[in-house]
């Protein structure tokens, strides 16, 4: 058993860390304040091949290792969660193509995404179907070689800036039959009938646009369907097995960033004649934060290792990592604000932003309540 | 990164799991209820070569790594945490100090007996007034011709009265704190070593825990472990890897509790369906499973770092803290799943709760773990 990162992972960690320290951290507060998508950071990541990490070299990428991607997302998130989403959504939006696409589809889309010339998004959720994704209403009706898509999607991260969006839609002709009739399509923003609705105002991850998407009699070539008709729901679930560890990595990075800040502050801030770090009340908070982070890291990396080695039990392992790391991020960022006291509550320090950003990790890619359902189902199955 | 067990480690897991299911599980309730020391199980573990799991083959042991050791302790603790505690204390803090710090002569003299179970080992550091603050222990070791005379009292000594060897910490320079502490190997048959009555405890029944009194206890120079003044370091090093064992014990306790809770939840019907179909039960099961998984990874990581000769103090403390807190919560939640039945001593659920509490206390309370972790964080 070996818990160490390999050379590639260590190098990428170092590269991403240094780059983010120099170029991303100084931008983080402004990105949050303006709520605008940071195109400069996207270009920076494209230039340094960071957006190519999710992809294997045969499709224009530089890695393709799940664990390597997690390490990169973790490092960016220490400094700016919004920026980390540029990478993780690039991965999320391309995973359906990677997992369910033909070689031709992969060759068409993945190299552009790897180079960062295009951005990807993933559209599953609708206003009426969140946790119950199978209840979606967007429908694609086949007419010869083309599907005609009608409907809308909500909470689509990066939806307004994406060039290609993988959209899940029902392909049955009528009725409310269940998940088996869902199919996945690669939708391009240039397709007639594709419209971006309003951008949501959010508590955190404010520079990451969360969009509503509308499809009005939008023709989608049958060649853009991923896999067979009716295989979409299974594909979406498979994507989530891969993408939930990415949320875990993001949460892990937020927690680490908040912890570093709190530890540094506790070493500098003096009260009662000594650094507050010397008080057991603060020491124990920091010890608990560090221990929770260590546990979250173990689960997150284990999920990456399981994906890279195709180990059994990936669904439960991915959900466990996402659940635990995001709950950890919430607790650790809240404690970090507490350690900074009144200063922690001010926009002048990044602690409060980290706390606002942490909250979303408990919600998206399956709320933590859904993670518990998934985990319980797997555990109950195991012991049968 | 490669988080897989070697074939050898899988083999050990299978061996111990079979032993635990077949021989420990059927005895666990009786051990708890009678409070009798399970000599039969210790002997069987010895026959399987488990007592010398960390002892090099050259001295009659199995020469396995700490990851195998952690697996061993976890699998036993799934069914009987007190039996796991007895074996863990023997194999780690009782035996490892000799493996790590003993002279060739000391190793040859003690390790084969310890590895093969002819002697059980105990570790005597804690005193009535020196618990978390172990550096201020009061037991003295006074030089006399050919050796030392030990005087003082030790408390909370696991395997007391059963052990053939006690690793005893005493001060050779009273008043100089950690720097004055020296470690000694004291035979269980030493006439100056007297064992008090076994404590009645909340849990870990069957594990012999008592006071040990050293009254003009003569120890030969050859039985001093390491140099004078090196004892505190020896003790701390023993506890560092000992924490891997306690962490594994807690993981086993929690896993056993979850296994039983899952089986019960699938059988127990209320409102016309198994309670496993109720979301509140599912949530508990999910949260238990997640913490166990994390605790096990942390335990194994500390073990692997230890085996690779890398720093592992912080990781071992974190594992101990996390796993034992998880075991306390999980054994309580598992009891809750059983409802009123969980409260009855007819089921193992209450025993696990009582046993789990000890894990938060011994080999460094969880408050001391936080002190250790915070110290390492300041240093980083």
Account of the 3D structure:
The complex is a heterodimer of chains A (384) and B (380). Chain A has 384 residues and is α+β, with helices and mostly antiparallel strands. Chain A has ten helices and ten strands. Chain A is 53% helix and 15% strand. In chain A, strand 2 (139-143) and strand 3 (146-157) form a beta hairpin. The longest helix of chain B is centred in the middle third of the chain and has 37 residues, at 231-267. The model of chain B has no long low-confidence stretch (mean pLDDT 97). In chain B, 52% of the residues lie in helices and 16% in strands. By secondary structure, chain B is of the alpha+beta class. Chain B has helices at residues 7-34, 39-47, 66-77, 81-94, 96-101, 104-115, 231-267, 279-307, 313-338, 348-359, 366-379, and strands at 121-124, 140-144, 147-158, 165-171, 181-187, 193-198, 209-220, 224-225, 269-270, 273-274. Chain B folds into three domains: 7-115, Butyryl-Coa Dehydrogenase, subunit A, domain 1; 121-228, Butyryl-CoA Dehydrogenase, subunit A, domain 2 (Beta Barrel); 233-379, Butyryl-CoA Dehydrogenase, subunit A, domain 3, CATH 1.20.140. Classes of the chains: A alpha+beta (384), B alpha+beta (380). Chains A and B meet through helix 7, helix 8 and helix 10 of A and helix 7, helix 8, helix 9 and helix 11 of B.
Going by CATH, the architecture of the largest domain in chain B would be Up-down Bundle
Which of globular, elongated, flat, extended, rod-shaped describes the shape of chain A?
A: globular
Cα gyration radius of chain A (Å): 21 Å
Helix proportion of chain A: 40-55%
- Major β-sheet strand ordering of chain A: 1-4-5-8
Strand content of chain A: 15-25%
Q: Uncertain runs of chain B with pLDDT below 50, 5 residues or more?
A: none
Give the number of domains of chain A: 3
Reported for the largest beta sheet of chain B, the result is: 4 strands, mixed
Chain oligomer state: heterodimer
Number of helices of chain A: 10
The biggest beta sheet of chain A reads:
4 strands, mixed
CATH architecture of the largest domain in chain A: Up-down Bundle
Helical residue percent band of chain B = 40-55%
**CATH class of the largest domain in chain B, please?**
Mainly Alpha
Largest beta sheet of chain B: what is the strand line-up?
1-4-5-8
Mean pLDDT of chain A: 96
Give start-end ranges of low-pLDDT stretches of chain A. Answer: none
